[in-house]
Amino acid sequence: MAILNALDRHVALVGFMGAGKSTLVGPLAERLGREGYDLDHGATEIIREQGMERFRAHELQRTLFSLEGRVPGVFALGGGAVTTEQIRDELARSAFTLLLDVDADTAWERSRGSDRPLAKDEAEFRRLHAERQPVYRAVADGVASDVDGAVLAAAGVHHELGSLDRLGELVPGDGPVALVADATVMGIHGPRAQEALGERLVSTHELPPGEEAKQVRVVERLWSELSLDRGGSVVALGGGATTDTAGFAAATYLRGVPWVAVPTTLVGQVDAAIGGKTAIDIPQGKNLAGAFHWPARVVIDEALLETLSERERRQGLAELVKTELLAGRDLDVRGAAAYKAALCLRDPHDRGVRNWLNLGHTFGHALEAAAGFDLPHGEAVALGLLAALRVSGRDDSPVRAALDPQPVTVDRERAWEALLRDKKRSGETINLVLLGDDGPYVEARPAGEVRAALDSLIV
Ligand SMILES: NC(=O)c1ccc[n+]([C@@H]2O[C@H](COP(=O)([O-])OP(=O)(O)OC[C@H]3O[C@@H](n4cnc5c(N)ncnc54)[C@H](O)[C@@H]3O)[C@@H](O)[C@H]2O)c1
Ligand SMILES: [Zn+2]
Questions:
Q1: Which of 157, 184, 215, 314 for mutating ligand 1's site (highest number of atoms within 8 Å of CB)?
Q2: Which helix (H) or strand (E) holds 202?
Q3: Closest CA to 124 of 108, 136, 100
Q4: Ligand 1 atom having least distance to the Cα of 184
Q5: C-alpha to C-alpha distance for 15 and 34, rounded to whole angstroms
Q6: What pairs with residue 96 in β-bridges?
Q7: What is the pLDDT of residues 317-335, one digit of tens each?
Q8: Rounded to two decimals, what is the model's pTM?
Q9: Is 89 exposed, middle or buried (0-12, 13-18, 19+ CB in 10 A)?
Q10: Fewest beta carbons within 10 Å, which of 1, 275, 282, 342?
């Protein structure tokens, strides 16, 4: 079976001459926080000086040696490397193999006039392109044509308009599927999902809409209703409440069955469905019982957002703006999903850089708690971003322009106590995610300064 993602595995870029493997390997490695290596470097000289046969032998050595390294890296392979069976076997064992797709016209335009020995004769070049395509397809675990696409593929995220209708083929494997959605989403998008799943669909399960789903008794009901064996998959169709609940049920049922997230909210598509964190609420607090369980696939179909209310869309907008601040550039849904996916691949168990995603959230959580959770998360985060930018010594106008957050009326003392509890601190400094010229960083700041920033969000 195809490899589903690049967690703990190398990423091996394969594809024809001119696909851009050598160009992409560096930026992709940087996004994934790994070392990148261009294994095709110097190929032209070796072929010219020693001939194709010696080159293949050299390539085999170099590629196998590299892929045997235990620290996951990113490797650009030579265009012909996958014609060697030993290399194909090693890829299947140790790598997530990513095809950088390029059509014959583009490849020829990029390669003609170069000194590549195989790019001399156009007819021969095109013949070789056609001959190699099926070989690449057969070894590839994913396909991409740019850095964001490569990150998404490496995380198992499929972004395509109208992909809900292809759900049957996008759920990995060919086993049975249980469909979970909240009552609202089941009513709107359930029928199309059911049709797309076809004969693989063995059961459907409705959750109460919104946060009500994230209760242990709802998960208990799912455990008792599911009748999958280990070869079956759970499909979670809905917002973050649904993906959190169904994902947690999948993590625990039979000690873990695969699951597929199909996010239907903006929050879900840029945030909640990505990265494998699942959780439900307990009386002691939100998200306090859960599991890390990376989805076998995330299917992002932006067409599903058309039925979303303006209010719900705004929740997601706050996370999108947060991600833009972290990335330092404008992002669409795909770009924001890719940004989060890269951080989560780097830090799947949330012990390091993934923490950056909490930009503004220390303040936001404190306001939510002080408001008795009457304040929507998106509004709290929007305010929190203002505070985070101010403490970072940065201009907060991008957040005001995009989200226009308004100060809230909550008890200041209560908000401060909630912040200290959240950070498990009562001392003189508080760790915050801040934003510098080169991106996010974590720094301890004096409690007085943090409290002043929190107070500035409250009227
Ligand atoms: N696991 C994570 O990494 C992570 C990250 C962020 C948020 N979350 C969790 O996500 C939850 C919030 O998720 P959310 O904001 O998506 O809310 P949600 O899942 O509660 O959905 C909000 C509302 O929108 C409705 N809805 C969903 N999709 C719709 C559509 N396409 N058309 C019409 N209505 C639709 C739902 O029925 C619900 O009433 C929180 O519980 C939060 O803790 C988890
Ligand atoms: Zn958030």
A1: 184
A2: strand 201-207
A3: 108
A4: 37
A5: 21
A6: 11
A7: 999 999 999 999 999 999 9
A8: 0.97
A9: exposed
A10: 1
